[in-house]
Inverse folding.
């Protein structure tokens, strides 16, 4: 199972950018389309004070809302998921 989960939508440019960034880094992740998973959509809203922010990225023990590439890279390094930028 992947250590990184991306909660988003297929039409969200930020979601697609984050997915492409992780693919470029060679980081395995699980993508959850919140338009097809009501429980996942509810979880995203709980993480974001009732708002649907995409992507919401779940790492072990950490949730990031619409992270920049730099924020995501820093968090993944801190969690031992990746060592590079």
């Amino acid at each position: 199972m992947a250590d990184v989960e991306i909660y988003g939508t297929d039409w969200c440019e930020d979601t697609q950018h984050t997915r492409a960034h992780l693919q470029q880094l060679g980081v395995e992740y699980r993508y959850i389309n919140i338009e097809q998973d009501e429980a996942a959509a509810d979880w995203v809203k709980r993480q974001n004070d009732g708002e649907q922010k995409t992507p919401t990225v779940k790492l072990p023990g950490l949730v990031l809302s619409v992270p920049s590439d730099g924020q995501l890279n820093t968090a993944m390094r801190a969690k031992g998921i990746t060592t590079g930028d």
Q: What stands out?
A: The mean pLDDT is 95.
